[in-house]
Each structure stands twice: as structure tokens, then as C-alpha cells.
Amino acid sequence: MSSKKQVRVRDVLIGGGAPVVIQSMTNADSRDEKGTLEQVARLRDAGCQIVRISVPDREALEVFRSVRQKTDMPLVADIHFDWRMAVGAAEAGADKIRINPGNIGSRDRVKAVVDCCRERDIPIRVGVNSGSVEKDILEKYGHVCPEALAESALRNLRLIEDMDYDNLVVSMKSSDVRMNFDAHRIAAAKTEHPFHIGITEAGTMKRGKLKSAAGIGALLLSGIGDTIRVSLTADPVNEVIFARELLEVIGLRTPQVEIVSCPTCGRTRINIEKLAGDVEQRLLETPDIPRGLKVAVMGCVVNGPGEAREADYGVCGGDGKGLIIAKGKVLETVPEGQLLDSLIRTIRENERNA
Question: Rounded to whole angstroms, what are the CA distances from 30 to 1, 64, 77, 236, 267?
């Protein structure tokens, strides 16, 4: 399930049944045109579909204008505090504007941004986070909580909806995975706008991936989320790579190859850890293997034959030997040292003749 409403960011659709879109954000100095352009290109090559760039001041705005002219990548201008930067970015060709209306200033300033976006049919992402909840909402609940975060997001959506502008995406982020999840569940029941989801300030590579997998994965499996950003304290290319992997394991994108392998136990009589790694590496390096193949690498007779038969291809280990299985049928028994080559040969021959 995705949000009912849909927006277009250059040539990318968000919501309304469109596939989940991967975003990231440059962390090069926004005043460094060369560094920003290079990072946009690297993000695109990694599979990023929309790139957000911070525009904090006039110098950064001029760089944004130049970058816009030199890339076809969909670009989002990230604006805080200064409404003039939002208007300038829209005039410079931004494909979407990200604002938190609460820190833009008066209603008139927000309306100036909305009017400029309306003239150009540019979507606005209304973004709030746990650190920007309005004082009166905090007083109402006593502290930051899911209800407070959702109420803040919905209030800011309504502010722009009341200006008769509906080309909107909503985001509400917390570094607390549970709070983030609960806030989205509350808000999703009250709006049909597309959701940009993620765990803000998730942390370093190891911890950030764990939090993002739990937080983003839970929302997507609940049917909430139309575009995602994995926030890591790292090269943003790593955000894109992990986002792709996350969408694959959830089943929202087709993986190049899916390896099903057992965790091993005392019954295993072949080196299943090495074999599984070698199979995965060989398949990823083989250009004529179709995407989406499911390959099982199993270590013993307990679950091995059944799992291997459920996959497109499989190996089921025995005592220093193993079975090669294709499309549910046992083809041959080969020594352990020949399992890898026999499996790859079988896959290539079968797929070539398919």
C-alpha cells in the first residue's frame, strides 16, 4: 500500500501506487560546486533517484542554480529559517522544496514560498522532527511523544492546505525507532499525502543500518512510506546502497540474486560458510544470470532438500559431497570440491536454454 495522492519530482513519481523511491542528501559543502556535482553523480550511479542539497545562504543558492543547470538529476532544495532561500531555489529550478513551516517564520513568509511553488508546480515536502515540535504541542503532551510528532506534522500540512496547495509530501522523523513508527501510524490514518520516511540521525554505519532497517522496514511492511532516506554518518553513497538492499529484502525490489543459506550446525559436514559466500560472489560476477534467481545453499539433510527444492537452484550438503538441485529436481551428486563449479554451470546452462 502507498499513499493515495501522488506528486511528481521532475520525472520521478512519489505515492499513488508508484514504487518506493530512494533519496539521499549531499554532504559536500553546499558552496562547493565541483564537490557537489561530483557527489550528485556518484549518488546517481549508486542508484539514488532524488538528491537533496542544503541551501543555507546566497552563495549556496548560486551554486544550487549552477548545479541544476549541469545535471538532470531530480534535486530537492533543503531550506531552514530563510524563506528567501526557498523562493530563490524554486526560481533556480528546484524540483522540490523541503521546508519546516515552523522555522520559516510568519504565515506570510510561508505563503510566499507556497505561491512560488504553485507557479512552477513544484512539490513541497513538509518536514518536521522530534527536535522541532512546537512549544504549545509540547506543553499539551508534556514531552516529545508520537502523538506530539504526528500533531506537529499534520498542523503544518494543514497550514499549506489552507493556502489551497495540495502538491505535498509529509515527513516526520525521530531518532527513536519506536516513536518514529508510532507517529507515522497516527498520521497515516489522517492524511492521504505521500510519506517520506526514515530514521533521523540514525548514527554510524553499523548502528545506523540497524536502526534504519528496523524503523524503515517496519513502516514499509505496514504499508506506510513512498520514498525513503537512510541517514548515516558516512559517505551518502552508502545510504543508497543500503536502501537498495533494504527494499530488496522486503520484497519491494527484485534483487540481483537471493541466496538462502543455513546458519550451519553440528550436523554439517561441508564448509557451508565458504560455499555460500563463493556462490553469491560468483553469481554477482556472472553477467548472463537473470535478476531475481533464488539459490539455496544448505548444509545437511534436515532442511536442505526441502529448501533447495523451493528455490530455483540449490546445493544440499552431505558428508564431503552434495546434491545439485534445479527447479525442484535432483540432478547429480558431486564431491564437495566440485559443488561450486557444478552449481554455476547448471544455472548458466538452464537459464541459457530457458
Answer: 36, 8, 11, 14, 57
Find out whether 307 is annotated in a ligand binding site: yes
Provide the percentage of residues in the chain whose pLDDT is more than 70: 99
Would the pLDDT of 156 be above 90?
yes
**Structure confidence by residue, pLDDT tens digits, 39-78:** 999 999 999 999 999 999 999 999 999 999 999 999 999 9
- Residue 171, burial from CB neighbour count under 10 angstroms (0-12, 13-18, 19+): buried
Q: What is the pLDDT of residue 2?
A: 63
Residue 226 grid cell? 513512498
**Spatial CB neighbours of 4, under 8 Å, sequence gap ≥ 6:** 15, 16, 192
- Residue 145 assigned as binding residue: no
Contacts of 254 (CB under 8 A, 6+ apart): 248, 291, 292
pTM for this predicted structure: 0.90
**In the chain, what are the domains?**
6-250 (3.20.20.20), 257-352 (3.30.413.10)
262 is in an annotated binding site: yes
Does 265 appear as a known binding residue?
A: yes
> Which phi-psi region, left, alpha or beta, contains residue 241 (left: φ > 0; alpha: ψ -120 to 50)?
alpha
